[in-house]
Amino acid sequence: MARLVMKFGGTSVADLDRIRTVAARVKREVNAGHEVAVVVSAMAGVTNQLVAWCQALSPLHDAREYDAVVATGEEVTSGLTAIALQTIGVDARSWQGWQIPVLTDGAHGKARVESIAGQELIRRMQAGQVPVVAGFQGLGPDNRVTTLGRGGSDLSAVALAAALEADRCDIYTDVDGVYTTDPRIVAKARRLEKISYEEMLELASLGAKVLQTRSVELAMAQRGPVRVLSSFVEPGVDNPGTLVCGEEEIVEKQIVSGVAYSRDEAKVSLLGIADSPGVAAQIFGRLADANINVDMIVQSAARTEGRQNIVFTCPDRDAPRAKDALLALGEAIQLEDIAIRRDVAKVSVIGIGMRSQVGVARTMFSALAGKGINIEAISTSEIKISVLIDASYTELAVRALHSAYGLDAV
Ligand code: ADP
Ligand code: ASP
Ligand code: MG
Fold first, then answer.
1. How far apart are alpha carbons 324 and 362 in whole angstroms?
2. Which of 12, 279, 289, 306 ranks highest by number of CB atoms within 10 Å?
3. What is the rounded CA–CA span in Å between residue 356 and residue 365?
C-alpha cells in the first residue's frame, strides 16, 4: 500500500467524459489499496479565458481580483471530479485552497506556497476518503485567494505530496512522459525513462512547459519522486511515464538529454553607452526595481572610444516596460540608442553529461551554422547552453540540434 498524489492537467479534465475517465483511474488506485489524494487543474482553455476577461476589462487590473477570477476554474473541476468519484462508489470530497488551507505569501498572481496543513486530509485518507484538491490556488496573508502562476497546479501537487508525506506524486498529462524535446514539434522525440531534477529544472525553466519550474524546484529540494505520465492511455496498457529523480539513480548519463525552446523572449540592445564603472549596476538595478527578469547578457566595446554596447534578453511582455525604465536612465548612462527585437527565440540544450565532456558547444554551433541560422547571444551554465536566434527558425533549430546530439528516435 502506498500514499499517492495524482494530479490531472487541463486536457485530462477537459470535459465530462475525461473527468469520468479520471475518476475511473483514481478508483483503480483506491481498489489496489492505496491512499489517494487528487489535484485537478481547470478544464483546458478555461484559465486562458478567465485571464483574457481580466485583461479585456483592464490591462492593469487589481491582482487580487485577478486571483479571485482565475482561481474559479479549478473550483469547478474539483467539485465535478468529486461528484464523478461518488457516482462510481468512491468516497470523495472537494477541497478549495482556503479550506485545507494552502497558505501562501501575498504575491497575488504568482504566490509562493508557505505551508499546507496535511493532518486532516491524512486522517480522511486513512479512513478511505479521497480528497480532490483544487490546484493552482491558496490563501494569502490578507485572507484572500491567491494563485501560484500559470501551470501552478503542478506546484500544488508537489507541495501537497510533501505535506501528506506521499510516496509519490504522479502528474497525469496529455503526453506519456518527459521527452527529449517537445513531441509536438519534433516527431522523432523520445520519451525519457528517467530524468534528473537538475536537468528537468533547466528544461522547465528554458521553456518545456510539461512541468512548471517551481514544482521541479520544490521536488528537488524535498527529493520527492515525481512521475509524469499520460491520462490518455487505456487501462491495462503499460504507462511507465518518466521518473524525475536524483542523478544518482540514473545509470547512463547522457551528454545532452533534451532540447528546449522559448519564444517568450525579447532582445534589448543598449548602444553606445558610457564604458565606466557602475553603468551596468545602474542598468540592471533599474530593471530589478521594475521587477523585470533579465536572462542573457552580452557586453562588448563600441566603435567609439570610451563607449560600450550591452545586449540582454527579458520576457517578451516586459520589453516595453524595460525600454521605459532604461530611457528614464538616459542621461546617467549616456545612452545613444536603444533597440528592441521581439521576434527572437531561445533554444537550449541540456544535459548533466556536459560537465565532463568537451566539444558540446562546437556541436551546437556547427549544427546551427549548417542550417544557416545566426546566433545573436549565447549563455551557458554547467549543464546547459542557450542561444538566441530569429524566432522564425525555432523549429528548424530544435530539430537540427535534436539530430546533432543523436537524440532522434530510430
Ligand atoms: P497539463 O495541462 O496536463 O498541465 P501542459 O500543457 O502544461 O499539460 O504540459 C504538457 C505539454 O508540454 C505537452 O502537450 C507538450 O506539448 C509540452 N512539452 C514541451 N516540452 C516537452 C517535453 N520535453 N516533453 C514532454 N512534453 C513537452
Ligand atoms: N489552470 C492553471 C493554468 O492554466 C493552472 C494549471 O493548469 O496548472 O495555468
Ligand atoms: Mg501544465
1. 38
2. 12
3. 19
Distance CA 184, CA 170 (A): 22
Q: Which residue bears the cell 521536488? A: 219
Pull the grid cell for residue 67.
486571483
Å from CA of 171 to ligand 3 middle: 9
**Which of 150, 156, 209 to mutate for ligand 2's pocket (most ligand atoms within 8 Å of CB)?**
150
pLDDT along the chain (410 residues), means of 10: 97 98 97 98 98 94 96 98 98 98 96 97 97 98 97 98 97 97 96 96 95 97 96 90 94 90 97 93 95 93 91 95 91 91 97 90 97 96 96 98 95
Choice from 18, 41, 146 to test ligand 2 binding pocket (greatest atom count within 8 A of CB): 41
Distance, CA 210 to ligand 1 centroid (Å)? 3
How far apart CA 365 and CA 371 sit, in angstroms, is 10
145-147 vs 194-196, strand pairing mode: unpaired
Q: What local confidence, expressed as pLDDT, does residue 253 receive?
A: 77
Residues 169-217 pLDDT 10s: 999 999 999 999 999 999 999 999 999 999 999 999 999 999 999 999 9
- Ligand 2 atom with the smallest distance to the CA of 154 is 8
* Cα 108 to ligand 2 centre (Å): 15
Pocket test for ligand 1, best of 15, 41, 192, 209 (most atoms within 8 A of CB): 209
The residues that bridge with 299 in the sheet, in sequence order, are 310
Model pLDDT, residue 303: 85
In terms of Cβ atoms closer than 10 Å to its own Cβ (0-12, 13-18, 19+), residue 328 is exposed
Protein residue whose Cα sits closest to atom 5 of ligand 2: 151
Q: 83-112 burial string, b = 16+ CB within 10 Å, else e?
A: ebbeeeebebebbbbbebebbbeeebbbbb
| Side chain identity at residue 315, one-letter code | P
> The whole model's pTM is what?
0.94
Give the model's pLDDT for residue 252: 79
Three-state DSSP class for residue 82: helix
Runs of H (alpha helix) within 58-140: 63-70, 72-87, 119-126
Q: How far is the CA of 9 from the centre of ligand 2 (A)?
A: 7
Cα separation, 31 vs 22, in Å, equals: 14
8 A C-beta contact, residue 148 and residue 138 = yes
Ligand 2 pocket list (CB less than 6 A): 9-10, 41-42, 47, 73, 135-136, 150-154
